[in-house]
Amino acid sequence: MIETKLDIINKLGLHARAAAKVVSVASRYESRIHVIHNGKPIDAKSIMGLLMLGAAKGSSVVFQVEGNDEAAAMGELTDLFARRFDEEE
User: Fold this and answer.
1) Which member of 9, 32, 41, 59 has the lowest number of beta carbons within 10 Å of its beta carbon?
2) What are the tens digits of pLDDT across the range 34-82?
3) DSSP 3-state assignment of 44?
4) CB proximity list for 75: less than 8 A, separation 6 or greater
5) Would you tell me how many other CB atoms lie within 10 Å of the CB of residue 46?
6) How many domains is the chain built from?
7) Residue 1 and residue 65 in contact, taking contact as beta carbons nearer than 8 Å
8) Quick check: helix, strand or coil at residue 53?
């Protein structure tokens, strides 16, 4: 299992469009992917779960990825966060 803390640096936080991109990436992998924010673990393949986290700009989330393709999944998720979900600031 890989566990990584990622900072939310885009202006709008983990809003609907950003959450949809996380789900899109997570759904391409067979690994189990969980996001933890304020102690709440959520399935990263659930858009409703991600929206319920209420993760705003400046907060951090922890991703736990476990499975055969965990390294590739974590790499793509880390890149997505670093790119600010491809949103213009």
Assistant:
1) 41
2) 999 999 899 999 999 999 999 999 999 999 999 999 999 999 999 999 9
3) coil
4) none
5) 16
6) 1
7) yes
8) helix
Q: How confident is the model at residue 87 (pLDDT cuts 50, 70, 90)?
A: confident
Structural contact between residues 21 and 76, judged by C-beta atoms closer than 8 angstroms: no
* Sign of the CA dihedral running 53, 40, 7, 29: negative
40-43 vs 2-7, strand pairing mode: unpaired
Catalytic residues, which ones? Answer: 15
Q: Please check whether residue 34 is in contact with residue 44, taking contact to mean a CB–CB distance below 8 angstroms.
A: yes
Domain range spanning residue 78?
2-86
pTM over 0.70, yes/no: yes
Query: What single-letter DSSP state applies at residue 14?
Result: S
